Amino acid sequence: MRGVFLIIIIILSTLFSACSSEKNTFTNRMFHNTTSRYNALWYAQNNIKELEALIEREHKEDYTQVLPIFFPIDSAIIEQNAELLADVRDFSSKAIEWHRISKWVDDAYFLLGMSDYYEANFDESSNTFRYLNVNSRKKRIRHRSLIQLMRQFTDLRKFDDAAFVIDYLSKESGISKENRFILYKNLAYYYDLRGEINGKIGALDRALALTKDKKEKSRINFILAQLYQREGLDALAYSYYNEALKGNPPYERSFFALLFAQQVAELNKSKDLKRVRTYYDDLYKDSKNKDLRDVILYEKALFELKQEDIDAAENLLIRAAKEESRNPVQKGYIYQRLAEISFDIKRDFRATKYYLDSALSYIRPNDAIYPEINEKKGNFDNYVLHYETISRNDSLIRLSQMSEEEQELIAEMFIRQEEDRLLKEAEAKSKERSSSIFDNLLAFGGRGTGESFYFDNAVAMQRGSIDFYRNWGTRPLEDDWRRNVQGFGGSSRADTPSATDETSEPSEQEPESIIGQLPDKESLLAQIPRSEEAITRLKQGLESSYFELGKLLFFDFKEFQMSIDYLESLITTYPNSNKKAEAYYILFLANQEINGNAELFAQRLNREFPDSPFTFSVNNPDAIKGNQAFLASSQLYKEAYEQYYAGQYLEARTTIRQTLENYPLTKNTDRLLLLDIMVSGKIDDKERYRSRLENYIQTTEEEPLEKLARNMLLALTGEVEENESDLTEEKSLDEAGSEIAEEDGEALEEVDDLPYRENPNQTHIFVIALDPEKARESKNLLADLESFHLQNFPNARLRTGNMNLNREEVIFIVSPFSNAEKALDYRNKFMGNFNSQSLEKEDKEKSFLISIENFQELNRRKNLNEYRQFYKRVYQ
Question: Which residue stretches does the UniProt record annotate as biased composition, category Acidic residues (predicted)?
């Protein structure tokens, strides 16, 4: 018994001594290796796998685009699962600190690096992976760390650094099969972001040969098939699509593999159109494809487009838009295609605008096609705005010139037309129901669909509502409706609250009230302008829209004849328009494009506007334009201003005129013209000086210069006291000259350095930038923004999101705004009305606007201070 007790003591002593993390004995190493691997390290590895599985599960594959090599990392998922990564960090740290002599220490360091990588702490993760490359004795860990470092460099678009790692690994020996598979996937990712298709295909082929995972094989085969299909290698694409069907892939991938395989093999080349259409119809009828019917109709529409059957394709796309969808982005593609048909084929700009609106309601800012659609949409928004302004204002002005009897007759006719439209809509809805003869017979017996029952008959309901509305108009709902004592002039209970007032609103199941759809005659007549002031406002809007539409059609849509039509309407209807000179200039250019009488408008410019910059441009077609012209004209402007200030008025005029002739239509043109008017005030008669000032005030679009010109005119007309006149003018000239010269100096220094471009008509984004710590504390900011939008912009379909711009800044994004003006309106309301405990006043003041194109550049350069310089100059 005593011997057994002694043995137990020896065993316990051995075990306790093995717990030491300092003694490098066999027993110690065995204990720490086992404990480290199957405790702390096991939990840390499982957490990383769990996070990666979540990223994969939350990602929605878009099979109409080439699938991504790696599932995109969503920062929202990382934030939601911060505890997982915190545990990874905790367990890995314990594996290192408690088991220092374990052979799994390097694995623990690698998991720490992965935790930093997923949390976008790229400097820390990079240091960890570099440390392992230098210090780890395990090739497996060294190589894996280098591969992950390469992935990180590729994520950050640091392609030179990634290429260096690739070159280093290409000289390494003994890379395990598992690591080689990961390496080639990363290599494919590197080539993908660089746009090198051949390199991407080659890397994926090598990766495919290095894995036995059926799930991985299926997805890589599908990506390769997509790439070969886009390269026109249909035979290879067909083979890879068939390979993608192996390994029990998800049903959706199987569906697309079969569909695309049929396309590359037969459908796109078949002359048996009936068989192809039957194929799509059979797919549509298959109950297993219920959630994919929008895709089937979309693909069939593309097929019909290739057959140039535009009407069939459009009808199919409209049907597809009404189907339910697994993938919301698919709806975006459907509406995008409808927009293309409306624009490219039908030239229906209004329909294009509304289809693009619908597309953007489904497409996210990080989707590949988002920038393209956003960029197009701004022009169509402007077109519809001005087109509808012309239609509305022109109609109202014509109505205002009619007698009251004629106005009432037209209002009644309009209401009748609306009634007919609503009846037709109700009839179309009723046709969607079953019209089976058995249903019609059964309805009389109370069994069937009940089509003949009044409250199930949409046409009868609509007609009854219209008849009631004609007879009684808009009447309040009353509980006691059986009354014949309440005459026309009797008192109404409408002003007397009752217990049932709160429940008088119709339920969601009730049909939409006809009163909510039909306008009443009084409201229609109230829209007709009655005063000269109201009519003048409508005419001003009409004049502006004629000009803007003509300009837009020429420069953005290249519709030269349509542009000519609108601009000729402008100068015919409004011969004294302050936009007449620019309209002549665009008409000159448009007639050049269609071989029309351009010389006519050149003559008009020279006769009516000899000092206009547009006249200078017409007379000097070989003048330098663009950035070089801006830089040169800026220098000459400063020279002319110095001559003016020194009293050398004739020399200043010569410099100004030569500058306008050599560099017409730059950002300095308005400044040069005002300086020329200032010279005129010194050496010409007062009447010419006054006339030029008045004309300048009407035509300039730069508010500070217009304000200065107004002050000069006030001084000339005597509204400023005479003894203050010279002082006011001199002070204004001095301040304006100094300010403009200073701005030009900044522009000269910055214009070549900053990559950003001013584009007020492009879609814009509103941005709030915070440091990472403050961003982590601002957990309620996105929710507060959503509430703010709900209250102030309920119909704007604004979206919010956040992302890491760089190590120092996290940005919160609100989008989209169709142009800079709408974005500025949003920022003004944001500054005045938005309140959140997550945001301090100085953070609000640092918020800014940025166009889509400039945002892409900012995301590449990661330099927020650089963009702020541009923002301050352009937007503030």
Answer: 502-511
The values of phi and psi at residue 502, to 5°, are -70, -25
From 418, 446, 449, select the one nearest 432 (Cα to Cα): 449
Instruction: List phi, psi (to 5°) of 733.
Output: -65, -45
Residue 464 lies in a domain: no
The Cα–Cα gap between 163 and 190 comes to: 9
> Do residue 247 and residue 315 come from a single domain?
no
| Alpha carbon separation from 839 to 235, 826, 847 (Å, rounded) | 57, 17, 11
Residue closest to 827 by CA, chosen among 844, 843, 810, 841: 844
Contact 547, 390 (CB under 8 A): no
Tokens of 601: 């408008």
Q: Alpha-carbon distance 98 to 42, whole Å?
A: 15
Give the model confidence (pLDDT) of 237-259 as tens digits: 889 999 999 988 998 898 888 88
Q: Please state the φ and ψ torsions of residue 645, each to the nearest 5 degrees.
A: -65, -30
Contacts of 666 (CB under 8 A, 6+ apart): 625, 629, 630, 633
| Residue listed under structure tokens 């405990």 | 837
**HSE (side-chain half, CA atoms, 13 Å) at 533:** 0
50, 63 contact by CB (below 8 A): no
CA-to-CA separations, 547 to 95, 379, 583, 602, 605, in angstroms, rounded: 73, 15, 7, 18, 17
Structure tokens at 592: 């050049």
More confident residue, 138 or 725: 138
817 & 722 share domain: no
Asked if residues 461 and 426 have their Cβ atoms less than 8 Å apart, the reply is yes
Q: Are strands 799-804 and 810-817 parallel, antiparallel or unpaired?
A: antiparallel
Helix axes 580-593, 532-555, angle to 10 degrees: 30
Task: With beta carbons less than 8 A apart as the criterion, state whether 389 and 540 touch.
Answer: no
Q: Is residue 444 part of a domain?
A: no
* Domain identity same for 328 and 238: no
Structural domain harbouring 786:
764-875
Q: Which residue has the tokens 């350069």?
A: 861
Contacts of 105 (CB under 8 A, 6+ apart): 36, 95, 96, 99
How far lies 651's CA from each of 144, 570, 654, 686, 780, in Å?
Answer: 72, 38, 5, 20, 63
Q: What is the pLDDT of residues 289-337, one digit of tens each?
A: 888 888 888 888 888 888 888 899 989 999 988 888 878 888 888 999 9
Q: What is the pTM of this model?
A: 0.61
234-244 and 214-230 helices, crossing angle to 10°: 160
For 116-145, how does the pLDDT look when each residue is reduced to its tens digit (9 = 90+)?
888 888 888 888 888 888 888 788 888 888
Domains in the chain: how many in total?
A: 5
